[in-house]
Amino acid sequence: MKRIKKGDQVIVIAGKDKGRQGTVLNVADDRVLVEAVNMAKKHTKANPMAGSEGGIVDIAMPFDISNVMLFNPMTNKGDRVGFKFLEDGRKVRYFKSNGEVVDV
Predict the structure, then answer these.
(1) Which is it for strands 31-34 and 81-85: parallel, antiparallel or unpaired?
(2) What kind and span of H or E run contains 9?
(3) Average per-residue pLDDT in the chain?
(4) Which of 4, 49, 52, 85 is the most buried (most CB within 10 A)?
(5) 41-51, pLDDT tens digit by residue?
(6) This prediction's pTM
(7) Contact between residue 26 and residue 33 where contact means Cβ atoms under 8 Å apart
(8) Which residues pair with 84 in a beta bridge?
């Protein structure tokens, strides 16, 4: 089980986009892709067969998973994540600051 999953709300804690929030689009190995964060300009060539125009396009680039923290809506801050087992034997993630379970 990973600490950060697809669909989580995260806050960036390091880099040029420090303090920005977004939704995780993809997690691969130790890289995370966050919506509208770490944007880069990509120069694309027109392709009439695919119907795409040429020009400069903004795309989100992945960055290291250590640069994000899970966003805690109770405290409105980034929070560390731990793991624990519930009474029925399920393993769940919880916020370290207040002990609240992340996924039910």
Answers:
(1) unpaired
(2) strand 9-12
(3) 95
(4) 4
(5) 999 999 999 99
(6) 0.86
(7) yes
(8) 92
Closest CA to 2 of 87, 70, 73: 70
CA distance linking residue 31 with residue 50, whole number of Å: 30
Q: What distance in Å separates the CA atoms of residue 41 and residue 28, rounded to the nearest whole number?
A: 22
Please check whether residue 72 is in contact with residue 48, taking contact to mean a CB–CB distance below 8 angstroms.
no
Give residue-wise pLDDT tens across range 5-36. Answer: 999 999 999 999 999 999 999 999 999 999 99
Burial 2-14 (b: 16+ CB within 10 A, else e): ebbeeebebbbee
How far, in Å, CA of 100 to CA of 94, rounded?
A: 5
> Among residues of the chain, what percentage have pLDDT more than 70?
99
Task: Give the mean model confidence (pLDDT) for residues 89-97.
Answer: 96
Q: What type of residue is 39?
A: M
List the chain domain ranges. Answer: 9-75
9-75 CATH fold = SH3 type barrels. (2.30.30)
∠ CA 10-16-22, rounded to 5°:
20
